[in-house]
Amino acid sequence: MKIPIFIEASSLRVLVLGGGSEAEKKTRRFLRHGSRVTVYSVEFTRWLLDEGKAGRIRLIRGDVRDRSTVSSLVDSHDLVIYTIPGLPDEEDSIARQCERRRKLCILSTNAERTMAAMPIEVRAAGMRIAVFSGGKSTLVAELAADEISRCLSGRKDIEILLEAMGHAKDLLKVKMPDHRLRMDLYRAFLEDRKLRELSEHGDMDGAMRRVEEMVEEAVAGRT
């Protein structure tokens, strides 16, 4: 059973096996988030070749059936992405290696067996929202993501609440170190009528001032 999780990608060493369109898509995404990407394949798309020539990714020519070389590459990376269809034995070999060595593994060719998966992502109301179909249909996941984005795109109040609550969290961490005391306050702040009204009226500055007031009141009440 898979669970949704966000991880810091900027420190990841990513190995992409295959050099076609799927490999390019995965490489583009991890490159945008600062990962160090190595692509291992017999052939590469034009974009991958250009990125390799520019030094933004590392390209290694080789056949995935060369298990000794692939094994060495798996050892030196944190995340392995397998994108080559039609080679079930090699897919199985990669999956087993990653399981034994506790490496994160994405099998683009096998949604059921893959250890990890990359959901469709949209941004709305200041948040990143991921939609995962469980491998059933990326197209339907994209449709759902677009619908969620449209639903939230006009909700300025949610974006203001998000920023205000984030501000409150930062202040309380400094002024009230005991996390047990903070938990109840977060809920009370979110339900504050004045904060909600300011958010609904699009008053970001007012919402920020309101949470600052509530933090000061909460701290004073604990001293």
From TrEMBL:
<dbReference type="InterPro" id="IPR028161">
    <property type="entry name" value="Met8-like"/>
</dbReference>
<keyword id="KW-0560">Oxidoreductase</keyword>
<dbReference type="GO" id="GO:0019354">
    <property type="term" value="P:siroheme biosynthetic process"/>
</dbReference>
<keyword id="KW-0520">NAD</keyword>
<keyword id="KW-0627">Porphyrin biosynthesis</keyword>
<protein>
    <recommendedName>
        <fullName>precorrin-2 dehydrogenase</fullName>
        <ecNumber>1.3.1.76</ecNumber>
    </recommendedName>
</protein>
<comment type="pathway">
    <text>Porphyrin-containing compound metabolism; siroheme biosynthesis; sirohydrochlorin from precorrin-2: step 1/1.</text>
</comment>
<dbReference type="Pfam" id="PF13241">
    <property type="entry name" value="NAD_binding_7"/>
</dbReference>
<dbReference type="GO" id="GO:0043115">
    <property type="term" value="F:precorrin-2 dehydrogenase activity"/>
</dbReference>
<dbReference type="GO" id="GO:0004325">
    <property type="term" value="F:ferrochelatase activity"/>
</dbReference>
<dbReference type="InterPro" id="IPR036291">
    <property type="entry name" value="NAD(P)-bd_dom_sf"/>
</dbReference>
